[in-house]
Amino acid sequence: MVYYHIPVMVREVIAYLNVRPGRIYVDCTLGGSGHAAAIVEHLMPGGFLVGIDQDKDAIENAAKILSDHASQIALFQENFVNIGLVLSRLGISKVDGIFADLGISLDQLAQSGRGFSFQRDEPLDMRMDESSGVTAEDIVNDADQRELSDIFFKYGEERWSKRIASNIVKARQTRRIKKSSELAEIVVESIPKKFIAYPQRIHPATRVFMALRIVVNRELERLESFMDKAVDLLNPGGRLCILSFHSLEDRIVKHRIKAFEKGCTCPSNFPACVCGGETKLRSLTRKPVRPTQQEIEVNPMSRSTKLRAAERI
Ligand SMILES: C[S@@+](CC[C@H](N)C(=O)[O-])C[C@H]1O[C@@H](n2cnc3c(N)ncnc32)[C@H](O)[C@@H]1O
């Protein structure tokens, strides 16, 4: 698979990660390796990049794109929650920067054949790591109506979640829903026509597909657990830099950084700290950094990106 994903906010990522020669960095979401290639360029001479992605296509692509620097990289098909395990395999205990660019790549959406897009007629899979867990088909056909509606509402902020869930349950009484196009059709038919205005900025099935993808890949819980592990793998002065696209993701990133800044979790009326929680991070971005207007014009997909970064104390 040839990758076409355009990396977002590359200049800002390099600056916030503070990429310097001779240091060690981890790109936890290689995707099309655009950010990874920029990191490698800035860590020379003498630096090292550990590259992780749960999708085997991304790892194969990275091996090609970064082949000129093979001695300065190590690639792993892993979930980024296992970052500690990956580093211990390499005998590395601490690193100088950890980067994650959350969500899905344009290439997974357009050409993975795994049903991420409502515009294609593909099996409803949606697993980024094809060797793990339940598929979107399992959820769409096996979850009860209430669960489906909750998923669409909570993770997709879909206002028609109940109607969509009810129509899915009706449709599956006669057949198993197996294709992305079938699901997209049910979603479109569930939304009253007057609320489907054409031309529109997003397809009516966008939110349902995004919600399912988040649940299939357990994206939010893994993000939280990843951040907790990443913080303890940074050298003092090391940087954590995260790009998010979804408000729920950004909320987690913001709150975890805040919690590590605060350290202590004792109630404010306690005379002294008894929890032993220590301050581990200093936020470098009080407000999330957004792409420039110029970048959004060149790459409209970048428009909802938020960058947050913090430094290990
Ligand atoms: C937005 S793309 C990254 C794009 C990349 N920065 C570039 O320059 O092309 C997100 C990538 O993260 C991967 N990914 C998402 N969640 C992951 C996780 N929990 N563990 C490992 N990889 C993950 C996806 O498979 C996808 O390839």
Biggest beta sheet attributes: 7 strands, mixed
N-to-C SSE string, H for helix and E for strand: HEHEHEHEHHHHHHHEHEHE
Measured as a percent range, the helix fraction is 40-55%
The total count of strands amounts to 7
Low-confidence stretches: none
Q: Class of the largest domain in CATH?
A: Alpha Beta
What would the CATH topology of the largest domain be? Rossmann fold
Indicate how many domains the architecture comprises.
2
CA radius of gyration is 21 Å
Please state the structural category: alpha/beta
**What's the overall geometry?**
globular
Number of helical stretches of at least 4 residues: 13
Q: What hetero molecules are in the model?
A: S-adenosylmethionine
Strand order within the widest beta sheet? 3-2-1-4-5-7-6
Average pLDDT reading: 94
In quaternary terms, these chains amount to single chain
What is the annotated CATH architecture of the largest domain? 3-Layer(aba) Sandwich
Q: If you had to describe this structure to a student in words, what would you say it looks like?
A:
- The protein has 313 residues and is of the alpha/beta class.
- The protein has two domains: 10-107 and 219-312, Vaccinia Virus protein VP39 (Rossmann fold, 3-Layer(aba) Sandwich); 130-215, Putative methyltransferase TM0872, insert domain (DNA polymerase, domain 1).
- Helix content is 41%, strand content 14%.
- The protein has helices at 10-17, 34-43, 56-65, 83-89, 106-111, 136-142, 145-156, 161-171, 180-190, 206-216, 219-231, 247-262, 293-298, and strands at residues 24-27, 48-53, 73-77, 95-101, 234-244, 281-283, 306-312.
- The chain has a seven-stranded mixed β-sheet, sandwiched between helices.
- Helix 2 (34-43) links the parallel strand 1 (24-27) and strand 2.
- Helix 8 crosses helix 9.
- Bound molecules: S-adenosylmethionine.
- The site of S-adenosylmethionine has 22 residues, from helix 2 and strand 2.
